[in-house]
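The material for today's practical consists of a large collection of protein records. An example says more than a description, so a record of this kind follows:
***
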Amino acid sequence: MKRKRTIKVFCFTAILMCALVPTLWISMNIPEKRTTAEEKQTVLEEEVQMEKMQIVIGQKTYNVSLYENETTKSLKEMLPMTVSMEELNGNEKYTYLSQSLPTARVYPGQIHTGDLMLYGSDCLVLFYEDFATSYGYTPLGKVDDPAGLAEAVGSGAVEVTFRMGVE
């Protein structure tokens, strides 16, 4: 008797699931047209209006798209500023800020030319070469077109001006 009851419950559940599955698929709102990665990136760029900053190194000016976070808000309050950035490891320039900024550290795994990040709470870093890393940073922004950045910063200390706006 118990076995018949178990079979009936099983059959009822199976019938119910067969009836509900198509409804669940329809309610998932699966788009009819799949978009390419390029189309998705264009949509994201159009939806997110990133604030711009400039980095001036000698006669070269680079536009930087800033990420929207508490760290960049605090950094913007310090601008404009001109600092001497020191060389480190043949791939980055850094300077210590006069005050600590809020942090939201991530471990990117890969650094890209033009990344602007905060190491710790007061070390501003501009990367001019790609490389793998295990270190943690707070992302601030990205140079829009980093072509020639390595040549502009050179091999030693360099004077860099940070200011809001675009050229």
DSSP finds four helices and ten strands in the chain. The two ends are 84 Å apart (CA to CA). Helices lie at 2-27, 37-47, 70-77, 149-153. The CA atoms of residues 128 and 149 lie 6 Å apart.
